[in-house]
């Protein structure tokens, strides 16, 4: 379970905080996008590995 939770993307909470405090929201949004794409790839590979026979 910890591996699956670690593979999840960053939520939108950091972006909302960056907007609220008027900090670099564009960097935060890029991080969220990259973590979402990384999550898609890593979760797909993990699920494929777990379903592989043997």
UniProtKB/TrEMBL annotation:
The keyword Transmembrane applies. The chain crosses the membrane at residues 28-50. The keyword Transmembrane applies. Keywords: Membrane, Transmembrane, Transmembrane helix. It comes from the Bacteria. This is Membrane transport protein.
